[in-house]
Amino acid sequence: MKALDTEFPEEDKFEKLTSRPKARRGPTAFLTVQEGCDKFCAFCVVPYTRGAEVSRPAERVLAEARDLVERGVRELTLLGQNVNAYHGHAQGLAGIIRDLAKIDGLERIRFTTSHPNDMDDALIAAHAEVEKLMPYLHLPVQAGSDRILKRMNRQHTAESYLRVVERLRAARPDLHLSGDFIVGFPEETEEDFQATLDLVEAVQYGSAFSFKYSERPGTPAAERPQVSEAEKDDRLQRLQAVLLRQQRALQDAMVGREVGVLFEKPGRRPGQMGGKSDYLHAVHVMGEGLSVGELRRVRILESGANSLMGELV
Ligand code: SF4
């Protein structure tokens, strides 16, 4: 059963979040809108440790967002273990995003972490229509083999994930995707792993997090036949090489483009400022008189190891 935190004991979960002292904040903040998860992926402890999915009512989320913006926040990342299952607003996560976008002074909205099955039509449409919703999305898939996805109890297939990506990119063609991957899940064969590589090639990720499977006591996957450490190491290296190549290619493709950058802190060199692009790339510019919290257009001149260099437009 879905729960709202109005008059249930779960309300206590968010109590600490609303009693912050009224201090000036930096330009970016996380805002928890949802906790827990009902998905029960076979490798994950969240449903056991955090419990069932609980959403904060929209009015409380909006009140906290207004307060954060008054204190200097320009970019909000809505947080939840399964954030797009959010149901504290009649129109779900898309509804709260559209209401947040009406707050003057709030310039950017992001959300994390999403499950592909909860990427509904309204949320996909928001990516096309809400200018403040940034073109970067963390959408974990974990594996590309349907056999392994089934054993993971992910409740989606590689094909259904790819269809969600396709619809998102139709709505927002410049969307950069980020993913999570687990290699060496119990009973994963070389053929299964190859299906993960194929999916990665089909998507072309802007960034990704990849891990070797490790047993979490109490989860169903911990009871199954395990893949050897040597095989896990080998697969992780191969996957990370592909993901790194894609990340570099997308980062390098920013050179010559103009992007929005929200400046967050002075850079290492005198006169330099650092911030994040719409696509979450770290960007540095030389900018006399630039202040933290300014959102400016920047032309990207150079792509470095971990960041981009640009000039103010
Ligand atoms: S959807 Fe995410 S949080 Fe929920 S069980 Fe799966 S991995 Fe864990």
Task: Write up what this structure looks like.
- This protein is α/β, with parallel strands linked by helices.
- The protein has helices spanning 12-15, 46-49, 58-70, 92-100, 121-129, 146-151, 158-171, 190-203, 229-252, and strands at residues 3-4, 28-32, 34-35, 54-55, 75-79, 108-112, 136-138, 176-183, 207-212, 258-266, 272-277, 282-286, 295-303, 308-312.
- It has 3 domains: 1-133, Transcription Regulator spoIIAA; 135-253, Transcription Regulator spoIIAA, CATH 3.30.750.200; 258-312, Nucleic acid-binding proteins (OB fold (Dihydrolipoamide Acetyltransferase, E2P)).
- The strands form 4 sheets. Strands 10-11-12-14-13 form a 5-stranded mixed barrel.
- The chain is globular and about 60 Å long.
- The relative contact order is 0.10.
- The model is unreliable at 6-12 (pLDDT under 50).
What labels describe this entry?
3 domains; 9 helices; 313 residues; single chain; Transcription Regulator spoIIAA; globular; three-stranded mixed β-sheet; binds iron/sulfur cluster; 14 strands; OB fold (Dihydrolipoamide Acetyltransferase, E2P); five-stranded mixed β-barrel; alpha/beta
Indicate the topology.
Blueprint: E1 3-4, H1 12-15, E2 28-32, E3 34-35, H2 46-49, E4 54-55, H3 58-70, E5 75-79, H4 92-100, E6 108-112, H5 121-129, E7 136-138, H6 146-151, H7 158-171, E8 176-183, H8 190-203, E9 207-212, H9 229-252, E10 258-266, E11 272-277, E12 282-286, E13 295-303, E14 308-312
Helix pairs in contact: 4-5, 5-7, 8-9
The protein binds iron/sulfur cluster.
